[in-house]
Amino acid sequence: MGLKKKTRKPASEELSITSMMDMMTIILVFLLKSYSTQDVSVAASADLQLPASTSAKIPELAVNLIVSKSQVIVDGVPVLNLTTVPDEDTGEDMLAVPEDEKKGQMITRLYDRLLEKAEQAKALGEASGSTEHEFKGRILLQCDKTLPFSVIREVMYTAGQAQFGEFKFVVYKTE
User: Fold this and answer.
1) Of 72, 75, 76, 65, nearest to 96 (Cα)?
2) Is pLDDT above 60 for 91?
3) Are residues 64 and 140 in contact, defined by beta-carbon separation less than 8 angstroms?
């Protein structure tokens, strides 16, 4: 008895690229969504010299606070001018926040401006309804490398009182 073996006909010999195109589209969309660029403006001025660091963290978008040798600036708007006073130990002139601008350690005009920025950020976060835009209390702090620590301490204390508790220091990257 002759049993005959069934032979299969080969499937379509055309290449179906629909699945491959779906996969490539998904990969492309994923890469586009995960890729982002952010600009952080660093004010290049004669009275601001940022310190150097080997930090490799990517800057994040936040309120920009600049403390130069002459003034304090919040998001490009000057808030107050610094003054020079004689150092108690050495007698040399050093930068300081004017006494009439302070209440203890807090700088009143800076506090008012930062509190206004915090309220604006909270309102924007609530209006958008997105966790990406909610207020995180983050501030980018650009300080001149020659500033006395007392000025930086007073600025940081004031920012903390105005609900900004996360500080990101802006520095120049060195290799």
Assistant:
1) 72
2) yes
3) yes
Strands (E) located in 10-100: 52-53, 63-67, 71-74, 77-81, 83-86, 93-96
Of 108, 114, 168, the closest CA to residue 142 belongs to 168
- Evaluate whether residue 46 is within a structural domain: no
> 105: which 2 tokens?
């350690």
The CA distance from 3 to 48, in Å, is 93
136 CA to centre of own chain: 11
pTM metric for this prediction: 0.66
Q: What is the pLDDT of residues 119-171, one digit of tens each?
A: 888 888 788 777 777 788 889 888 888 888 889 999 999 999 998 988 888 77
Q: Which residues contact 30 (CB under 8 A, 6 or more apart)?
A: none
Query: Which CATH number fits the domain that encloses residue 152?
Result: 3.30.420
